Task: structure prediction
Amino acid sequence: MIKVGIIGTGWADRVQIPAFKAAGLAIVGLAGRDQAKTARVAAAHGIAFHTTDWRELLEVCDLVSVTSPPALHQEQAIAVLEAGKHLLCEKPLALNMTEAQLMCRVAERYPEQLALVDHQLRFLPAQRKAKELIDSGAIGRVITVTVRITSGSRMNPREPFNWWSDAAQGGGILGAIGSHALDGIRWLLEPHCGRIEIAGAALGRTYPTRLDTSGNVREVTADDIASLVFRLGEVVGTLLVHGAALDEAVDLLTVRGERGTLVIDKSLKLYLGKRRGPLKEYVTRLPELVPNRFRANPFAAGSVLLGLALSEALGNRRELSALTPAARLADGLAVQRLLDEARHLAR
Result:
């Protein structure tokens, strides 16, 4: 079994540890900043080794998953690679282009090691089939693309100030969720339409201040709302992502071409409509290997599928083709460029 060490106790606790364990990966170590929380999370998942010194993980595992806040990614990812370990880094890749470029240069020195970004949605059957259909010309020349991702995640005024609200630590919904959307657009459309460029951006907050855990008022410097306009050659696109919804959450990707339309909805369903015809569901099913408890959450389901691909690629079978959909650090760098451009335009 592949021995995995994880840095971070938030996302890892909620999704990645149970998803990777379901995929057959062995989680052999956990590192976190808070000793009590790290011990609690490790015990909950049956992880014997836990530490507040993330460098100790490098001695006990084959692959390290970096799920810490983005401000820590550069140092930790580079250390993982230099220790001879495979790397899976959370998105966004870094705080800015300068950091991301350095990470990519280091990864290039270790071509035998995996250096991936956790854009696990690429592994979902609906996304993979959408790419296959676009690549085959099923909807013809692409004309426009729209993405809407909304939730009520930032509408609780009592949600405490933490790194998510702090731009200096890489917080904000554009990086956390918008990066997935931008990666998906690149993956689906750039081979056919050209490089994506941000044409305009606006960022906002649901609440200008929040109380930290000590009761102090802190200014929210990261975004809870992001609206982007972009182009890929002649293709015009829009992206709206926010946590300000009080109604039902929306997760919708629509790609319109000369001969048809593709839609992926929040329930992981793919729809295909031919010109002047109705949208019809294009049946895509999650593999039976994905347990039922993960199926309603696309990030959890994608994490199981990514874990299965890692197991195939690094296990006895050495099926590296299983990781064909995976995002490399170069993909993370490309998304980082877009995040930086959007923030610059918004300012």
User: Anything to note?
Assistant: The first helix runs from residue 11 to 22. The chain is about 30% helix and 25% strand.
